[in-house]
Amino acid sequence: MVAWGNPDRRDDAAGLVVADVLRDRIRGVAEIHAYHQLPPELAEDLSKTERVLFIDASVELGDKEVKLRRVRPATSSHADISHHLPPDRLLGLTHAIYGRSPEAWLLTVRAHDLDFGTELSPPTARLVGRAVDEAERWLAEECPTDGRKD
Fold first, then answer.
1. Domain residue spans in the chain?
2. Which residue among 43, 50, 72, 80 sits deepest, i.e. has the most Cβ atoms within 10 Å of its Cβ?
3. pLDDT digits (tens, 9 = 90+) for 68-79
């Protein structure tokens, strides 16, 4: 599992908070990595795994509060790669360099407040439990044999 967010921008840290809760609940079952943003250097690690769950906050969820969706590698040009990549572009980079990328899903939690601060807003904080439950369901369904996936 790979979570990212900015802990100094309130709800942008929702993915990191979900990862922290999961770390305690599924200790030893799956690896959980947390980043400020998704770096291109992560491509090597991703090339060595079968499945990955990305976890992030988003203000663009439509009518959803917590959303799980499949992510496919982007096939666009990699000429504009920077130190911040969305999951689809990171998967595309992984495939371009290593010839493969893992099956991937993105779990997003609605961000209500992206102002400066270190606490989640009350509406987003209430969604953390739902997101953790969704991640645990994903782990049970997608990694049922041993759970040892990223």
1. 2-142
2. 43
3. 999 999 986 555
